[in-house]
Design a protein that fits this description.
Number of domains: 1
Number of strands: 10
CATH superfamily: NADP-dependent oxidoreductase domain
Strand content: 5-15%
CATH architecture: Alpha-Beta Barrel
Radius of gyration: 19 Å
Largest sheet: 8 strands, parallel
Order of helices and strands: EEEHHEHEHHEHEHEHEHHHEHH
Distance between the termini: 32 Å
Number of helices: 13
C-alpha cells in the first residue's frame, strides 16, 4: 500500500481508502461480512475509512467504531459526515444554511455520530451536502471551530453534490476547510477544471469517491440489470441512465489492456492524479477488498492509455434521478 499526504493536515493516509456507504443500508449487507472486509482492509494497509450518519442512520458509523476498537494499536483515520437538517440529498441552490446546517444541528449530529461510533473524536468531520453560498454565513464556522476546540474532531471537510464540483471551489478558496470529497472517475473528470487547481493552491486534500461510477466502470452492468426491491441503485439506474452508462462502459472495453480488468483501469486512472489524497471505493466483501487494494501496487497507467481515457470524459448535469 502506498500512502499520500492528506493536504495541510500532514496525515499520511492510504491512497486507497474504504467507502462505507454500502454496508450501512444497501440490500444484501451483512454486519459480520462487513466487519471481516473492514478488518481485511486494515490488514492490507488501508487506514482511511469514510462513513456518514446518513449511511443507515448511524449504522455504518457503529461498524467503524467497532473496527477502531478492534485495532487499538493501529493508527486508523476516521471520517464521517453530518446529514443536512432537511435530509435532502443533494442540496439545491435555494437551500439556506438554516435549512441544512444551523449551528444547533451541527452540534447535535457531531455528538450523535460520536455516540454511534463510540469514539471520543473523529479525524475528519464533513458536511454531507454543500452550497458555496454558505461560505459567507460564518455561523457554521464559529460552531465548527468551537467543536474542534473541544477535541471532537481534528479537521473539517465538505462533500460536493454529484456532478457539481464547481459548487465547492469557494469553500476551498476560503481557507476554512481541510478536505473536499468529490466524484472523480474516467467519466467524471470535471473536478480537474476548477476544483483541483483550487485544492492545490490551498493545500486542501481531495477524497475521490465513486471511482467505478456506481458500478458502471466495473463493466458488469447490462441494460437488463436489476437490484432487489428497496435498493438505491434501482432509483439511480433508471432506463435513461442505465442504457447510457452501459453503452459508455462498452466503448471503454477495447481499451482495457491484456491482463488488466476494467475496475483496475478505472482505479488506476483516479490514482494517476497527484492531487488525489485517497480514493474510497465502496467494498462489502473481502474479495473486493483484496482486488481493489492490490491496485496500489500497480504502476501508473501508460501515458497513451491515460490520454485515450481522457477522451471518454462525460459531462453530466444533475437530474431528478441522479441524487
Amino acid at each position: 500500500m502506498r500512502y499520500r499526504r492528506f493536504g495541510r493536515t500532514g496525515w499520511k493516509v492510504s491512497e486507497i481508502g474504504f467507502g462505507m456507504w454500502g454496508m450501512g443500508e444497501w440490500t444484501g449487507s451483512n454486519d459480520e461480512e462487513s466487519l471481516r472486509s473492514l478488518q481485511r482492509a486494515v490488514d492490507l494497509g488501508c487506514d482511511f475509512f469514510d462513513t456518514a450518519w446518513g449511511y443507515g442512520a448511524g449504522h455504518s458509523e457503529g461498524l467503524l467504531g467497532r473496527l477502531v476498537r478492534a485495532n487499538a494499536g493501529k493508527r486508523l483515520y476516521t471520517a464521517t459526515k453530518m446529514p443536512p437538517k432537511n435530509f435532502q440529498w443533494p442540496s439545491r441552490r435555494e437551500f439556506t444554511l438554516d435549512d441544512c446546517f444551523p449551528p444547533d444541528h451541527i452540534e447535535k449530529y457531531v455528538h450523535l455520530s460520536l455516540q454511534n461510533a463510540g469514539l471520543e473524536s473523529f479525524d475528519l468531520m464533513q458536511f454531507h451536502t454543500w452550497e458555496d453560498a454558505w461560505v459567507e454565513d460564518h455561523r457554521w464556522v464559529k460552531e465548527i471551530e468551537d467543536l474542534r476546540r473541544q477535541g471532537l474532531f481534528n479537521a473539517v471537510g465538505i462533500s460536493t453534490n454529484r456532478w457539481e464540483p464547481w459548487n465547492g471551489v469557494e469553500a476551498v478558496r476560503s481557507g476554512l476547510i481541510d478536505a473536499v470529497q468529490v466524484i472523480y472517475n474516467i467519466f467524471d473528470q470535471n473536478p480537474e477544471d476548477k476544483l483541483f487547481p483550487a485544492c492545490k493552491e490551498m493545500d486542501v486534500a481531495v477524497i475521490a469517491r465513486v471511482p467505478f461510477d456506481e458500478g458502471t466502470l466495473t463493466g458488469t452492468l447490462t441494460k437488463e440489470s436489476k437490484w432487489p426491491e428497496g435498493d438505491w441503485r434501482n432509483t439511480y439506474f433508471v432506463p435513461e441512465n442505465l442504457n447510457a452508462c452501459v453503452e459508455r462502459a462498452e466503448a471503454l472495453r477495447p481499451l482495457v489492456p491484456k491482463g488488466m480488468t476494467m475496475p483496475e483501469m478505472a482505479m488506476r486512472f483516479v490514482l494517476d492524479s497527484p492531487l488525489v489524497a485517497t480514493v474510497i471505493p465502496g467494498m462489502r466483501k473481502t474479495a473486493h477488498v483484496e482486488i481493489n487494494l492490490a491496485v496500489s501496487d500497480a504502476p501508473p497507467l501508460h501515458q497513451d492509455l491515460h490520454a485515450q481515457l481522457k477522451g471518454h470524459r462525460w459531462d453530466r448535469k444533475p437530474t431528478s434521478w441522479s441524487q
